[in-house]
Amino acid sequence: MPSLSDNDRWLLSYYRSSEINAALFFGRVSRMVKPGELQAEVTHHFADEANHAKYWNQCINDLDAYPIKMRESYQDQYLDAVGMPSNLMEVMAITQVLEKRVIGQYRRQLRVPGLHPRVKQTLDQIMLDERWHIQYVRDALEDMKDRYGADHIEATLDKFTRADQEVYAKTLAEYGERVDFLGVRPEFLGGPDDL
């Protein structure tokens, strides 16, 4: 089976870069969360994201290539659009939206005809963690309803979902030729649940 095409190498490097940024973000968050169950979960999430970057690095290396140094990740563009979260609820809301986008993107990649088995293995391995991320964040947001209000949390999720749609469309427009093989169109503006 052939090694990575230029576009495959670029996309897997983009995934790697995004996982690195997520690990750095959750490392900072894990230092700020009060001791308790959520602190342990956020710390676990930090470790997962660092491992995901390592898995992508290993996958790319196993396919006789090296990761491309990326100038920015999805999270960079996202935080430019919405700004830094101002409280833990906003951190969890942003996380929920981004994790759903990641799962949707990885599912789309798994459906690509002729997907290299080593890439599929890496996606499958990471998806196990991503499902747990969605669940613990959903539970954390549920636990925050008394403090922040269900309507406020829902409005925050809606705001971040709209920002995600804009960033995703911008990313596709900028890098469309790199991801054409995924069957995604720049005009696609559906939310992460629509993937």
Question: Mind explaining what this structure looks like?
Answer:
With 195 residues, the chain is mostly helical. The chain starts with 5 loop residues before the first helix and ends in a 16-residue tail after the last helix. The C terminus is likely disordered. It comes from Mangrovihabitans endophyticus. InterPro entries: Ferritin-like, Ferritin-like_SF. This is Ferritin-like domain-containing protein.
Short description:
The protein is mainly alpha-helical. The chain has 7 helices and no strands.
Question: Topology of this protein?
Answer:
Layout: H1 6-32, H2 37-62, H3 74-82, H4 88-110, H5 117-143, H6 145-148, H7 150-179
Helix pairs in contact: 1-2, 2-5, 3-7, 4-5, 4-7
Number of helices: 7
Q: Give the distance, in angstroms, between the N- and C-terminal Cα atoms.
A: 28 Å
Tell me the major beta sheet. Answer: none
Uncertain segments are 185-195
Protein name: Ferritin-like domain-containing protein
InterPro entries: Ferritin-like, Ferritin-like_SF
Jot down its keywords.
195 residues; 75% helix; mainly alpha; globular
